[in-house]
Amino acid sequence: MEMDNIECVSSSDGGGGMEEEDIRTHNHNHNNQFSSSKGLNNNGISPAATSVHELLECPVCTNSMYPPIHQCHNGHTLCSTCKTRVHNRCPTCRQELGDIRCLALEKVAESLELPCKYGSLGCPEIFPYYSKLKHEALCNFRPYNCPYAGSECAVVGDIPFLVTHLRDDHKVDMHTGCTFNHRYVKSNPREVENATWMLTVFNCFGQYFCLHFEAFQLGMAPVYMAFLRFMGDENDARNYSYSLEVGANGRKLIWEGTPRSIRDSHRKVRDSHDGLIIQRNMALFFSGGDRKELKLRVTGRIWKEQQNQEAGVCIPNLCS
Ligand SMILES: [Zn+2]
Ligand SMILES: [Zn+2]
Ligand SMILES: [Zn+2]
Ligand SMILES: [Zn+2]
């Protein structure tokens, strides 16, 4: 029974009357089978495991299939996302699709163990088929999104790659050291609509930190906000603290916090107000002069939290 189902997928050269679209699908499958017959693939999976894996690839969208896996009366399989798109017609044989689950293939999937797809980035983990996706969404080796906030940037990669990308492609200022003294000047502080984003990258303790400064509308009031993000994951971010200070004329605001990981989007950090927020009136007061120009001096420091030297003991921040 199981073999029947498996066979009907790989023999996608079945029943005539194919239309152009079907032929492409067929060729694609054929190419996959061909390339996998060359021995070990990139993931180091044996050819047998690869061909089983191919069975679990949706013939239409080529994504891995997860339950419910559907099939037509002739046994052509289809992922559940594609099923909703094909108007109840099998994309391979054009027969009516009905509502048949391919339980045998679902069972085969259950028995598989596969390496995390970030194996090439260093993840050594192997997972049962159905928990692999869950792991990959949270895998510590998964690439980071570009932390630049001023535009939609789709670049992903590891930290050294992103540091280079920020410097070369976004022309971001790079600083070395754990203290800073920054001046933000804006000639027309009335304009918050086209929020100004500023990003500076700091390199200290062998790590990289992003200092964000921007203007946005908080409720009815325009505000300025500065905050720090850590270029690494949440656990490592907790090893550091930072402070920001802004002021003039005998007044000052001080913010002290833990940098957020760049795993948290810029937007998420901003919307949780996890940083130094300066009301516009206060910002203009700090700017001095005729309040026509924004001139803020923000000083700050990054430091490493004292860690318990004994192995296996968690960091104070981690245990509440
Ligand atoms: Zn699909
Ligand atoms: Zn079919
Ligand atoms: Zn992983
Ligand atoms: Zn970018």
Key descriptive features of the protein:
320 residues; alpha+beta; Herpes Virus-1; Apoptosis, Tumor Necrosis Factor Receptor Associated Protein 2, Chain A; 2 domains; six-stranded mixed β-sheet; four-stranded antiparallel β-sheet; 17 strands; 28% helix; disordered N terminus; binds zinc ion; ubiquitin protein ligase activity
Would you spell out the secondary-structure blueprint of this structure?
Layout lengths: L1 H9 L9 H17 L10 H9 L14 E2 L5 E2 L1 H6 L14 E2 L1 H9 L1 E3 L10 E3 H10 L5 E2 L10 E2 L1 H11 L3 E4 L2 E8 L10 E8 L2 E12 L2 E10 L3 H4 L2 E9 L2 E7 L2 E2 L4 H6 L4 E4 H8 L6 E11 L16
Parallel strand pairs: 8-10, 12-15
Antiparallel strand pairs: 1-2, 1-3, 4-5, 6-7, 9-17, 10-11, 11-12, 12-16, 13-14, 13-17
The structure holds zinc ion (4 copies).
Describe the structure.
The two termini are 54 Å apart. The strands form five sheets. Strands 8, 10, 11, 12, 15 and 16 form a six-stranded mixed sheet that branches. A four-stranded antiparallel sheet has the order 9-17-13-14. Strand 1 (70-71) and strand 2 (77-78) form a beta hairpin. It has two domains: 53-137, Zinc/RING finger domain, C3HC4 (zinc finger) (Herpes Virus-1, 2-Layer Sandwich); 143-304, Apoptosis, Tumor Necrosis Factor Receptor Associated Protein 2, Chain A (Sandwich), CATH 2.60.210. The chain is elongated. It is built from ten helices and 17 strands. It has helices spanning 2-10, 20-36, 47-55, 80-85, 103-111, 129-138, 159-169, 234-237, 266-271, 280-287, and strands spanning 70-71, 77-78, 100-101, 113-115, 126-128, 144-145, 156-157, 173-176, 179-186, 197-204, 207-218, 221-230, 240-248, 251-257, 260-261, 276-279, 294-304. It is an alpha+beta fold and 320 residues long. One zinc ion (ZN) binds next to helix 4. The site of one zinc ion has 7 residues, from helix 4.
